[in-house]
Design goal:
Length: 215
């Protein structure tokens, strides 16, 4: 943008709206993702840029459901899902000028999901003029999640209502959205009995916020 942005901006989503966003993600997971886990037919999976870059009917259906729900709740916002970007990369050019944008991956870890490995999740960031302001990573298997915003450190939350701060504070919330995702993912690593969020380079898990050297 040509104009200079203020150092701080009003919070783009209220706590009640954050809860609504979470509810949208959980409904999509229950409706479109979990019923297809370990139940995909060969025709439900295709490749994109390379053999390990997969997309499934679950990715597409979940993205469509989340997109519709966010458009209803935030009609003036820019909504960008990963599969939409795969079809139209120019969508990313709109983020920096958007007063409110939602950027999400309906299944982060599609390779794992496709191969029946229960290490995948839904990730979402809210940005204001390209600045990350709120983020969420949701684990459909455990039905728990981590959230963070630009005023508070990452917090782990569970469906039974319990929550606790992450032991890994969000050091700089105004870094680009990948930093937001990595911070939230580090919080998820604190969950007992959870697979490591950043596994060793020879680990089989493959996930955008759980990136390994094997892709």
């Amino acid at each position: 943008m040509s104009e200079t942005l203020p150092a701080t901006l009003p919070a783009p989503v209220t706590p009640a709206q954050q809860q609504h966003i979470l509810n949208i993600i959980r409904r999509a997971a229950r409706t479109e993702i979990l019923p297809r886990f370990r139940s995909l037919a060969a025709s439900d999976v295709r490749t994109k840029s390379h053999a390990d870059d997969l997309v499934t009917t679950a990715d597409l259906a979940a993205e469509a459901m989340i997109t519709r729900a966010l458009q209803i709740a935030f009609p003036s916002a820019l909504i960008i899902g990963e599969e939409a970007v795969a079809s139209d990369p120019a969508l990313l050019d709109q983020i920096a000028d958007a007063p409110l944008a939602f950027i999400f991956d309906p299944i982060d870890g599609t390779w794992n999901f496709t191969h029946g490995v229960a290490v995948f999740g839904v990730i979402l960031a809210v940005t204001q003029f390209g600045r990350p302001a709120f983020g969420l990573i949701y684990d459909p298997i455990a039905d728990d999640w981590a959230v963070a915003d630009d005023e508070n450190p990452a917090v782990l939350e569970r469906a039974n209502g319990t929550s606790r701060p992450s032991r890994r504070p969000w050091a700089n919330p105004l870094k680009p959205s990948p930093a937001l995702f990595h911070s939230i993912c580090s919080a998820r690593q604190d969950r007992p009995k959870s697979p490591p969020c950043f596994p060793a380079s020879n680990a089989p898990t493959r996930c955008g916020v759980q990136r390994t050297n094997t892709g």
